[in-house]
Amino acid sequence: MSALGKPSPRQISVVVADDELPAVNELAFLLGKDSRVGEIHRASSGAQALNLVENHAVDAVFLDIHMPALSGLDIARVLGGKERPPALVFVTADEEQALAAFDLAAVDYLLKPVRPARLAESVRRICDLAAEAAAGDSDVVTVVQGSTTRIIRREDILYVQAQGDYARLHTDAASYLIRVPLAELEEQWAEAGFVRIHRSYLVSRAHIRQVRVAGGRASITVGSAELPVSRRHLPGVRSTLASSRVRPRA
């Protein structure tokens, strides 16, 4: 998940990692022809790629999957633990690892030989993400679905549903899965009017249509969905809704 702001004109900095030097040089050459790309760091091993990320401000890493010692997937798992990980683009001849790559929140998955048009699309996505991070605006969310990047306005999100380490954003039109725990969204979106009503649900106060308390049970209607309010969260929900003049209907 990312918050989008105004586009930034700055060039992006990238790492190109592949254990085959000709492949590194070819991709670096193609990236160098793109005016949106600035510094290009080259790595011929996974360890070298991680070292470059640690010592340079890097916006993205272009990774081959099959490298000795540390594979591209191994590197992605390590980088995923960083507070602000760089965007990941896998560049490989292996078509079968796409699912694993996107499960690691890859921005794109390019098959060798890389077509310039597809590489340009990857750079565009990275630039969008870099601009979002620079702006620090949390009014929109970037959702990557396979080869498609969607921009979701936070004000259109009715509620969020926990799904393990992921969260599903529900709008009137559709739902979108992002790799952010519900607890993290609860903390980040509290000031935007999102209220935790259950261990599995976070709702937008602006979209609450009805609150019901009957027979010792409480529920909230958001859009067309009626969601349960847990006993644990009910006092906090009452307090929050009272402060905003939304009264439960008995």
TrEMBL record:
Keywords: DNA-binding, Phosphoprotein. InterPro entries: CheY-like_superfamily, LytR-like, LytTR_DNA-bd_dom, Sig_transdc_resp-reg_receiver. This is LytTR family DNA-binding domain-containing protein. Gene3D superfamilies: 3.40.50.2300, LytTr DNA-binding domain. The modification 4-aspartylphosphate is found at residue 64. One of its GO terms (molecular function) is DNA binding. Residues 13-127 form the Response regulatory domain. Pfam families: LytTR, Response_reg. The lineage of its organism: Bacteria, Bacillati, Actinomycetota, Actinomycetes, Micrococcales. Residues 151-243 form the HTH LytTR-type domain.
